[in-house]
Amino acid sequence: MRPSTITGLSLLIALVGASGAVAADAKRTQAPPAEPTAVIAPTSSFVSELRFGLSAEDPWGPEGRNTSANLTGEILFAKPFTASDLFTSYFVPRPHVGGSVNFQGYTNFAYAGLTWTVDITPSFFVEGSLGGAVHNGDRNHFYTPPDRSALGCSPLFRESGSVGVRLAANWSLMATVEHLSNGGSCADNRGLTNIGARVGYSF
Q1: Among 16, 46, 75, 84, which has the highest number of CB atoms less than 10 A from its own CB?
Q2: Each residue of 117-175: pLDDT tens digit?
Q3: Bridge partners for 134 per DSSP
Q4: pLDDT digits 0-9 by tens, 30-56
């Protein structure tokens, strides 16, 4: 075999060996692939709480003289955003919608607004809400039946206050007072003040 051929084969073997060594070194120094990490998204619900209960309709007014009672229901939605600390979060309200149906055919109404809930202890809380309501009550400025409240117009302003206790992780019980009036925007402004109790289920 010619010397040039032997030299060529030697160079080829040396190159192959060198490339193999480089590949081995690269394999040893290459960082191991990262383990796949499970991304857990925070659980949230569009609906925050459901409430239902009973109330006495305007017990000190015309519609309450016959012990008029209502069936009530309310949906509270999740807060639009969360605050970084607990105190600030109390100022972020939950939107709500609800309704009240009278068993004796007196004033029914539907409402919407904002609710602020403040924890006094882990089990005890207070809350307030503001909003508006539409109703089918008396709006006749000339004559109001003696058993009806003169509400003047629709919609009305609605305010409510509650005190409540958490019975379990998801269940709560609260006493609520609500008031509806037109704030003097109509000639008649008797208004309605209802008191009652509600049960809430949180998601």
Answers
A1: 75
A2: 999 999 999 999 999 999 999 998 888 999 999 999 999 999 999 999 999 989 999 99
A3: 110
A4: 545 544 433 333 446 899 999 999 999
CA distance 72 to 196: 9
Name the token pair of 100.
């009240």
Q: Is-contact 150 193, C-beta < 8 A?
A: no
Find where tokens 């019975």 sit. 167
Residues with Cβ within 8 Å of 56's Cβ and at least 6 positions away in sequence, in order, are 64, 67, 68, 69, 70, 194, 195, 196
Spans of all domains in the chain: 47-202
pTM of the model: 0.76
Does the domain at 47-202 match CATH 2.40.160.20? Answer given as yes
Interatomic CA distance for residues 131 and 53, integer angstroms: 19
- Beta strand pairing status for 156-166 and 171-181? antiparallel
Burial class (CB in 10 A: 0-12, 13-18, 19+), 168: exposed
